[in-house]
Automatic annotation (TrEMBL):
Protein known as: Unannotated protein
Membrane-spanning parts: 12-35, 47-66, 75-93, 99-121, 133-155, 161-182, 194-214, 226-245, 266-287, 299-319, 331-353, 359-378, 471-491
A Pfam family this chain is assigned to: MFS_1
Organism lineage: unclassified sequences, metagenomes, ecological metagenomes
Domain spans labelled Major facilitator superfamily (MFS) profile: 9-495
Protein's cellular compartments: Membrane
Major localization class: membrane
Length: 499
């Protein structure tokens, strides 16, 4: 740990992290445009976002272990090369199916990038600098999503949504240069056998759960697709636990969750990002479809978040040295819940005071809750296992993000379709399909002779979408409250307590 760290190492790591985070969130701002250009349904929009996140989350444990074994910088470089190569195809992709596949392959690259960024910090930085560096990492991970949205919206002022992939390419290229020049390499030298089977089971576990939720909202919770997804989850979860308990060197030892700092940190991260990405997924569509803002105007109204999260995460890094997650984390989650309540009460008339007060509460809560949770996870494992510790942190984030998008999207989709059910009964079949599957129809040209009926359809669509948005925000609020109470009760009283 005495080796001097290059002053540009942390900025290079932050840039590589930004590459991943911006792509997780950035495409959300383009969803209304993609829906109009490619005719995507609400379920297809969910898959365009979640194909990336599901592959990303499913591979994280295995990719973190591979980076531990073969070198954390090597894992970072490998991921950036994949990412850069695949993003180039995004400049010309022109079908929903190809876009979903492209996003899935980008998720492979992201799965190698993200755990490597945090494990380089926790394995290479001196202990006295580690909390500060983790605070910067958390700030970029939390605020970076909104900065990515800002960049995406700026590009869409002048170009099509394809230009977002050009931004991904530039960030990946800059991150790759930094990784090759100033990021130190480190690896697990214990020589323990790599747990490939655990990694493969984890992919099926995450994929099955998210698939069941997304398809259940579209086809019904008793549909074959939804039941198959949940059946796969029900089989792979106990299988994963049994397999990992029997391994000499498991990918993720389930016994680690008996460590209350580790388990409460993972729970907190999972549900923070459940709320964050659920809000981004629905909120950006609400701002554009209901309030009629352009992508640029919508994202500008979200930029309060990084202005709070980035500096407050550094403050939280200092506070987490003195205040345990039990208090600091539960306090932050309570603020996040208040923010979601404010969002659930939005009216049809946009109010800066109302919207920004919700954002401020949300951002303040995220900043205070994230750093102590991340620190609790990474402090729970030794230096040679920091790739796995980082991967658990990232799996919690990405599973939370995927579930947030899937469940919030399911609530919105179910509520919207239910609200429009009566209104579409007398419509021609093709038009009824468009109206019931996505609010994007409100931007289409009014069919001849249907001026009054179509105006009523639009109004009903806005009401149904608003109701679904309110329900989803309330659900996030109650989840955040329940998590805050759980952490306050079960998290360790002492910062370094390990059981």
């Amino acid at each position: 740990m005495s080796k001097k760290i290059h002053p540009l190492t942390l900025p290079a790591i932050a840039l590589s992290l930004m590459t991943v985070i911006s792509a997780v969130a950035g495409l959300n701002v383009a969803l209304p445009s993609i829906a109009r250009d490619l005719g995507a349904t609400q379920t297809q929009l969910t898959w365009i976002v979640d194909a990336y996140t599901v592959i990303f989350a499913g591979l994280l444990l295995l990719s973190g272990a591979l980076s531990d074994r073969f070198g954390r910088r090597n894992g970072l470089v490998f991921g950036l090369v994949i990412y850069l190569s695949v993003a180039a195809y995004g400049l010309v992709v022109n079908s929903i199916g190809n876009l979903i596949i492209l996003r899935a392959v980008m998720g492979v690259g992201a799965a190698f990038i993200m755990p490597s960024t945090l494990s380089v910090i926790t394995a290479s930085f001196p202990r006295e600098d580690r909390s500060r560096a983790v605070g910067v990492w958390v700030g970029v991970a939390g605020g970076g999503a909104f900065i990515g949205l800002f960049g995406s919206a700026f590009l869409m002022r002048y170009y099509s949504w394809h230009s977002l992939f050009a931004m991904n390419m530039v960030l990946a290229l800059l991150g790759l240069i930094g990784a090759l020049t100033v990021v130190p390499n480190s690896a697990d030298t214990t020589g323990k056998k790599l747990d490939v089977s655990g990694g493969l089971i984890s992919i099926a576990l995450v994929g099955g759960l998210v698939y069941g939720i997304i398809e259940g909202a579209e086809l019904g919770w008793s549909s074959t697709q939804a039941l198959l997804g949940f059946l796969l989850t029900g089989i792979t979860l106990p299988t994963f636990i049994i397999v990992e308990l029997r391994k000499e060197a498991p990918l993720l030892d389930p016994r680690l969750f008996a460590n209350r700092g580790f388990s409460m940190g993972a729970l907190s991260i999972l549900l923070q990002f459940f709320g964050q990405f659920g809000f981004i997924f629905v909120g950006l569509q609400f701002l554009q479809f209901v309030y009629g803002f352009t992508p640029w105007q919508a994202v500008l109204r979200l930029m309060v978040v990084p202005l709070i999260v980035l500096p407050m995460s550094r403050v939280a890094g200092v506070l987490s040295k003195k205040i345990p997650q039990k208090y600091l984390g539960s306090f932050g989650l309570t603020f996040l819940a208040f923010g979601m309540y404010v969002f659930s009460t939005m009216s049809f008339t946009f109010s800066y005071v109302h919207f920004w007060s919700g954002l401020a509460l949300f951002a303040f809560g995220m900043a205070l809750a994230s750093t102590p949770a991340t620190t609790a996870i990474t402090n729970s494992l030794p230096a040679e296992k920091q790739g796995v510790a980082s991967a658990v942190n990232d799996v919690s984030r990405e599973v939370g993000s995927a579930l947030g998008i899937a469940i919030v999207g399911a609530i919105l989709n179910t509520s919207y379709r239910s609200g429009m059910a009566e209104s579409v009964k007398q419509l021609p079949t093709a038009l009824a399909e468009k109206v019931s599957h996505s609010i994007a129809f409100t931007s289409m040209k009014t069919p001849a002779g249907m001026e009054t009926q179509f105006a009523d359809l639009r109004q009903k669509a806005f009401e149904s979408f608003k109701h679904g948005t309110s329900l989803s925000m309330q659900m996030i609020m109650w989840v955040a409250i329940a998590t805050a109470i759980t952490i306050f009760i079960f998290a360790p009283k002492n910062i370094h307590e390990v059981s």
